[in-house]
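Lab meeting minutes (informal)
Scribe: AK
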Amino acid sequence: MSGRVCELLSIMARLRGAEGCPWDKEQSFASLAPYTIEEAYEVADAAERGDIQQLKDELGDLLFQVVFYAQIASEAGEFDFEAVAGTICDKLLRRHPHVFGKRGPLTSAEQSIVWEEIKAQERAGAQAAAPGRAPGLPSSHLDGVPQALPALMRAFKLSKRAARVGFDFEHAGQTADKVAEELAEVREAAQSAPAEASRAKEGASTAIFEEIGDLLFAAANLARKLDVDAEAALRAANAKFERRFRGMESLAAQRGEIFADLKLDAQERLWQEVKRGE
């Protein structure tokens, strides 16, 4: 390993040592998980913005998360950073037989198919060898889709897994029809819910809650069918909304108006003005 990687591992060990940082010594796999997710999103954000310096910094933060997990595991006698690196090396060698094995050259599309086939074999083997697994317990084609994924991303992956074994619409138009169907069911549930329930502190009724979930799942499935990354698309939509909303506030301030005091139609005119100016 390089000198700086060794230095990083040494710093991590000291942070967790007897004379180290109280906060670092208190952490566990579970407590680190939210920070890891946050760091991964910050890497994605820097990459999407093309901010190379920020990307380098965020990748360092993400690497620190890996080192942190490895240090905790090493203290428990489970594995260390070297073992983590070895695991991914073995996996990459195994999943690229066209590069490191005897299999001939593949196109990108063919490689994607091979990659998924190998992953499926790995999951089947891992499920069969799982400690404490009851004999004969049925496996599923949905095994291995992490529960901790953001819900939209997990919906995308679940529908993709189902599609691999034929449970899928034939074309995107049918998937869009399903979105329309789910939207109609949301409208129906909203109209049939008592007015008091809509104003209740606990929020929407169970029926509306479930129908909104079905609508979001159908939308994620449509994104997959159209070869769109649903999570990335929603992040882009969030950024667009934020940009336009801030633009409306700025225009109102320039004109000596208080945005929050404007009527909805006036706010809508500002929205359209900002939209036209993009």
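Next up, CB showed the second protein from the same session:
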Amino acid sequence: MRQETKRLSSIIIAALILVGALVVYFEFIVPAYTNLEVVKGQEESEATLYSNEQQIASQVKGLLATYKNDTVSNQSVAMALPVGPDVSGALAQIYGIAANTGVAVQGTGVSIQAVQAVTPQAIASAAAAGSIVKPTGIVSFQVVGSGSYEAFKNFLKGLETNIRIFDVTAISLQPAPVSGTKTQAANQDMFNYTITVVTHYQAS
């Protein structure tokens, strides 16, 4: 009986140990493992979120740099194609180019062409085509001056390469007479000329 009792006791103890192990496994280990998986998932999610935020920050920096570059470009465009006629600015540039090239400006005439009105239909059509362009007007300058032929060529070159867009549309060139003589003979290296220069401006 004692041997059987010992065996029974051993079986009961083993069963209790097994039940206890199962209880510990399901009550503690399984929840802890589940929590660990949740924590790992949260860490991976936070790492992914952090990586995405870094990418977004990098993209924002790139956009800011692009915006700054566009600001410079916009300033250049505003100088080349100003908002409004800016007649005084254009005249200052013309006189400055003339002074730098040795041309004596004797007079200027100004003619301003108003900006043409844009109809809503034209705006809608341009929007549909993806090409919205602000209306522009024209300012025409008639410049009367004198100088050598080389100065005249440099003056034209200065107009063509100026920051503000100048288009030379007409040129009248004549040899300048020599003053103080009876025959009024022509000076071979001095000319009188009239130049028509056109520039554009954006509607305000």
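CB comment: DSSP finds four helices and four strands in the chain.
No objections, moving on.
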